[in-house]
Amino acid sequence: MNRRLTRSEIVKILFGMEFDREYDTNYIDEYINHFADENSEDLVFDERKLDIDLVKKTINDVITNKEEIDGLINEYSKDWKLNRIAKVDMTIMRVAIAEMLYNNDIPVSVSINEAVNTCKEYSEENSSKFINGVLGSISRRNG
């Protein structure tokens, strides 16, 4: 299974949820299935390519702990209000923080590195430095 691809799909799903409905754990399976149907041509939901269990766990962790995760982002994003941070950057950081706090199978450095790489793919050029700084500060706090 490809964890990088899995993270990328997690970001896409959560980003879509940001616009389609409020985060709600009752809709995780429904939303993942809808996303899979919409993207079936890409075959990303082939079990050999995507870790569905990791998708569900991470999305559930983000949704269940969104208040705590957003609180950390707010605390460590110096002089930036949450509503000023691009939604894609927020989503990427939420995924990374959920991994850092609730998934002991993934080293913190990997979560941060993958978040920075995902940001470079989906966001503004300068966002990767911002995301790296916020996540690095959070990791040192929880270190």
Mean pLDDT: 84
Query: Which class do the helix and strand fractions yield?
Result: mainly alpha
CATH class, anyone? Answer: Mainly Alpha
**Order of helix and strand elements from N to C terminus:** HHHHHHH
* Overall spatial form: globular
CATH topology: N-utilizing Substance Protein B Homolog, Chain A
- Secondary structure tally, helices: 7
What is the strand tally? Answer: 0
Gyration radius (Cα, Å) is 14 Å
Strand content: under 5%
Biggest sheet statistics: none
N-end to C-end Cα span? 28 Å
Structurally, the number of domains stands at 1
Descriptors for this entry?
143 residues, N-utilizing Substance Protein B Homolog, Chain A
Walk me through what this model shows.
The chain is mainly alpha-helical and 143 residues long. The protein has a single domain (3-142), classed as NusB-like (N-utilizing Substance Protein B Homolog, Chain A). It is 70% helix and 0% strand. The protein contains 7 helices and no strands. The protein has helices spanning 3-20, 28-38, 52-64, 66-76, 87-102, 108-122, 127-142. Helix 1 (3-20) crosses helix 3, helix 1 (3-20) crosses helix 5 (87-102) and helix 4 (66-76) crosses helix 5 (87-102). The model has no long low-confidence stretch (mean pLDDT 84).
Secondary structure elements and pairings:
Layout: H1 3-20, H2 28-38, H3 52-64, H4 66-76, H5 87-102, H6 108-122, H7 127-142
How is this structure best summarized?
The protein is mainly alpha-helical and 143 residues long. Helices cover 70% and strands 0% of the residues.
